[in-house]
Amino acid sequence: MLKRPSVYLFCAYEERSAWAGDSIVATGVAPHISILQHMHSLANKVNDVVPQIQKVAPEVIRGVIDDFEKRAMTAGTVTRDGLEALISGCIEKSGSID
Known about the structure:
The protein is an all-alpha fold. The protein has one domain.
């Protein structure tokens, strides 16, 4: 029984663009191998970007929340006294403060 070759073996294959005057030459490399190579390089780039996004996301969310709170306070939708009363009431109901 034949073993299937590893995808990573084929991802080491380097591809070049066709130039004017090039003729079709049998390379022995199937066309889907270049697609696998591109997918592998994209996966590596995504893996490099994900930690950066995870690092920035909480800061962005915090900034958006702060902006919403400032706008709500300015518009009079939420007042400090009303918010304090609401939070105090919730804390008293939970029994956290005697």
